[in-house]
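Please go through the protein record below and explain what the tokens say about the fold. Record follows.
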Amino acid sequence: MGSPEKPLHRRDKNVTSAPVTVMRFGLYFADALNLCRKVREARKSNVDVVIFDRYIYDELANLPLTDRFARMFARLVLKLVPQPDIAYVIDADPVAAQTRKPEYPLEFVRRNREAYIRLAQLAGNMTVVAPDSIQAMKTTIRDEMLQKLARTEPGVGDRYSPLPAANPANISSGELIEP
């Protein structure tokens, strides 16, 4: 697995060669189509809330968004997939993030952060949560989420208030945002 003292040096998201980038376009487009299918299935079910960790954004942030063609592709995918009601990018200081995930070089972590911020601008529906303490970021996310849920259609928002208790069985204490 590696450790902060002896990190593994991954070669996946941080590989930026042209053949890998071209392959990503195809894989990410296929994944976008699959995401559309999954969202359609979720809408037909009787669930009230669906949470996606990273959604399609994690893939699009791996593209060289400084390149015009990559930005055009990202815009196409963003138009193709359903827009989530709420989307967050939790910004982090690159040095602190690299300390937490030392398997990626610092330069990649910096580029990845810039790509997420650029993607948030392209998407137009993502809230960038500024780096802060964990508690402050939880509060920011919770407050904004409650505001967005309160603005839902009449009759729909009723089922969101008050928020149900989280099931701690699948949420670590560091991730739980309590109402």
